[in-house]
Description:
six-stranded mixed beta sheet, 373 residues, alpha+beta
Amino acid sequence: MEYRLLGPIEVLDGERRLPLGGPKQRALLAVLLLGANRVVPRGELVEAVWPEGPPPTAATAVQVYVSRLRKTLPEGVLETRPAGYILHVDPGQLDLERFERLANEARLREALALWRGSPVEGIELGVWARAEVHRLAELHAAVLEDRIEADLALGRDAELIGELEGLVARHPLRERLRGQLMLALYRAGRQAEALEQYRVARSVLLDELGLEPDAALRRLHGAILRQEPGLELQAAATERVRAAVLFAILTPGDEGEPAAVRELLEQAVETASSELREAGAAVERGLAGALLARFGGDAGDALSAATAVQRRLDSTFAGSVRARIGIEAGEVLAGPGGITGTPVAVAAKLAGAAAPGEVLVGEAAAAAIGDPS
């Protein structure tokens, strides 16, 4: 089974596209997928499916839509709970989950290739579901900007200009995109056009929001005016080092409003990051509650830190947030943008396979530790 939210909603059984019914039934399925593997209360479903206001028959209609979806989806996937409904989705089945995992692993092009348009395209949803769709759109934009940043670091300035011009035209208020276009133009020998982009950005921001450009865009503008040497492409200083890598995915409980769950997750990420830094790790934050920590060559330190993180989360959040952790050791490439390499990919894969509260140790790390149990 494959569930697709990153564009028009689709469900595929192998090569066969399943029939999903009319707009309201599709909206209900979209909401269940946005809350995949957690109980979605009936009230949230009604509010999301009828944003214009529910009819008197809304509760009955939800039951009808659920019944129809049960006949379409595999048996046991859509389950009724006292508070609402839960749609069980296995790892790798939902394009949104794959997108976030690939982005966390810095496989940006693969992540972006999953998008087929706007998330849940063509479906009108209620307030909280619209907020989640907006979050996904922001996430896509951030990953796209990260991919462009990586291309700029590789010196692909000239070939990026056309793409950036189109993106800036569609998103005139995104200052990071505007700055990337200014830098690409400047490196291509088009300083006047780069400065004109700043003038346009300032005018749009003042007209639309009443705000001046942010500090980063102002600094870039000044640097272009002064033709500072630092704007030219610099070879990134990287080195190959032995390291123990810890990848953690923080998983909140099923219950609660989406906004409250996100706030809880943010607090848990800060708590786990603090614990890892106290253990001597260099910590990078990823998407959707993911953390990547690099220790020196001692995998035992990573395992001790993993245990400490689990204990700290349990004591601070009373079991409402658990960590799924993977650990691997080996040679990584370390540079200004963080670390990459096989140990990172293996640790991320192990974290994805771990149960909440579980730590999985890769072969190389286990060999280095001796007896991880």
